[in-house]
Amino acid sequence: MKHSELSFRDSVEFMFNRAAKFIDLPTGLKEKIRVTNSTYTVRFGVRMRGGIKTFTGYRSVHSEHMEPVKGGIRYAPSVNQNEVEALAALMTFKCALVEIPFGGSKGGLCINPADYSEDELEIITRRFAYELAKRDLINPSQNVPAPDMGTGEREMAWMADQYGRMNTTDINARACVTGKPLGGGGIEGRIEATGRGVQYALEEFFRYPKDVAAANLSGGLEGKTVIVQGLGNVGYHAALFLSEECGAKITGIIEVDGALSNDNGLDVNEIHQHIANNGGIKGYKGGTYIENGMKLLEGECDILLPAAIEGAISTENASRIKAPLIIEAANGPITAAANDILRDRGIIIIPDLYANAGGVTVSYFEWVKNLSHIRFGRMQRREEEGRNQLLIEELNHLFKNANIPVEFSTKFLRRFSRGAGELELVRSGLDDTMRLGYQAMREVWRSRPEVGDLRTAGFLVAIRRVANSYQAKGM
Ligand code: GLU
Questions:
Q1: Of 58, 141, 263, 389, whose CB count within 10 A is highest?
Q2: Ligand 1 binding pocket mutation candidate from 85, 91, 191 (most atoms within 8 A of CB)
Q3: Residue of 8, 144, 360, 367 best suited for mutating to test ligand 1, as the one with most atoms within 8 Å of CB
């Protein structure tokens, strides 16, 4: 089907409609699942710099089939209602696809954080949080924000504290937002979570030779070349883990001020540090600098990993993309029209609603941790170590009695005897979630050729699950 460029929200709706066609549901229910339930717009004034400055913020709730509803809060000058609603819808389907028991929501504040001092940002954030909390749009049992573009642990800590001040007797107050710093009720592994999820998603994809072949690739992740767009929290961690742990080679990095390429591989950590010190990638010596960075999206590589903004791949450049496999680490980096161009060209896309679900998955673990008021692993870690120790002692004893001259290596002993702490458990839960999410999606993709691609398959699984939950409530 041919269609011209749609807005971000219409793009998501288009993808929804395409998948919904394959499910037999009452038309009314499809409509109910598709629409955004509500979007709250707030304009508030903050006294600063000798005057009053007005800010505009949003919190959109897409679906409340499960509560709380969940999704990040974005700080960017480009934030608008259409974008926030598209992102909230994506949260609904993302959570459903990876079986996170939340509805979908998203928030945003029209602000360029770089224009304000830390003290000013704190006042603005607290005021925004106050406006949202007052209307239960921040609430441990109803709506739980998290970081997104332009926000992080610091903003989440301010919001949690603001909610706590407004709800002094709420024992679960800390569960009102996720992505908090560890000392403020956060969880190990949340910062790296989305990037880690991208790694697990690719590892799972490469476990299926048939899927790999569909992308005209072969073998595993080892030695694969990757071009990454955006070295923010998600892109940085994904690139780091892929290069350090999976043997992939990062041959291109695209940032706002240009791009770097090096066929022998770029040093992700060094470049990350260079950006922190210099405000951009320009001047970095370990690669060729390309002023028109977006051009590198069209570079030769095995895997293209857009981890920046929505709409990076559009009708403008889709026909020139060379990567046979694209993993959408960002939300909505490929427009609906570009999606079809790529699909017709046989390019495989691992879609956003699955690929970047690692963040909300670990957010879910954080929320559970906050509600249970105990760190994961606290009860069982030493018990597990004791049992492993016992097994090793018994085996050593048996070997000795049977005169078998064997010894465990110290590396094995160290790894085997250690009980799982919070970070190990978080990673294990995340890996499991990403594997199962992919399997659910690929099962539909493989068994129903008319579905056509992984994105439609992912939406199909998600819509079916949301529908089941509505139907279970008698709707
Ligand atoms: N902002 C992230 C996303 O788009 C995380 C959301 C969350 O943890 O609630 O998925």
A1: 58
A2: 91
A3: 360
User: Mean pLDDT over residues 182-204, rounded?
Assistant: 98
Q: Please provide the size of the chain in residues.
A: 475
Query: Can you say whether residue 7 is alpha, beta or left, with left for phi > 0 and alpha for psi between -120 and 50 degrees?
Result: beta
Nearest to 252 by CA among 306, 312, 320, 311: 306
Listed in order, strand segments (DSSP E) in 49-182 are 51-63, 69-76, 103-110, 143-147
Q: In what order do the strands lie in the sheet with 325-327?
A: 288-290, 258-261, 249-255, 225-229, 303-306, 325-327, 348-350
Task: Please report the atom of ligand 1 found closest to the CA of residue 70.
Answer: 9
Distance 431 CA to ligand 1 centre (A): 17
- Please write the tens of the pLDDT for every residue from 25-63: 988 999 999 999 999 999 999 999 999 999 999 999 999
Ligand 1 atom at shortest distance from the alpha carbon of 360: 8
- Counting from 1 in the atom list of ligand 1, the atom nearest the Cα of 72 is 1
Nearest alpha carbon, ligand 1 atom 7: 360
Fold of the domain built from segment(s) 38-186:
Rossmann fold (3.40.50)
Q: What residues does CATH 3.40.50.720 cover in the chain?
A: 1-35+192-380+420-475
* pLDDT (tens digit per residue) in 398-423: 999 999 999 999 999 999 999 999 99
Q: Is the pLDDT of residue 2 over 80?
A: no
Please report which residue ranges of 402-453 form alpha helices under DSSP H: 410-417, 422-447
Span from the CA of 39 to the centroid of ligand 1 (angstroms): 18
Catalytic machinery residues: 106
> Atom 9, ligand 1: which residue's CA is nearest?
71
The torsion angles phi and psi of 341, rounded to 5 degrees, stand at -60, -45
Read off the amino acid at residue 51.
G
| Helices first, then strands: H and E counts in the chain | 16, 12
Whole-model pTM: value is 0.96
Beta bridge partners of 249: 225
Q: Where in the chain is the domain with CATH 3.40.50.10860?
A: 38-186
Quote the longest CA-to-CA distance of the chain: 85
Residues with CB under 6 A from ligand 1: 70-72, 146, 148, 178, 331, 356, 359-360, 363
The rounded Å distance from CA 423 to ligand 1 centre is 19
Confidence at residue 1, expressed as pLDDT on a 0 to 100 scale: 45
Of the CATH numbers 1.20.1540.10, 1.10.10.10, 3.90.70.10, 3.40.50.720, which one belongs to the domain with range 1-35+192-380+420-475? 3.40.50.720
Tell me, in angstroms, the distance from the centre of ligand 1 to residue 98's CA: 13
Strand 249-255, strand 51-63: pairing: unpaired
Degrees, nearest 5: CA angle 400-401-402: 90
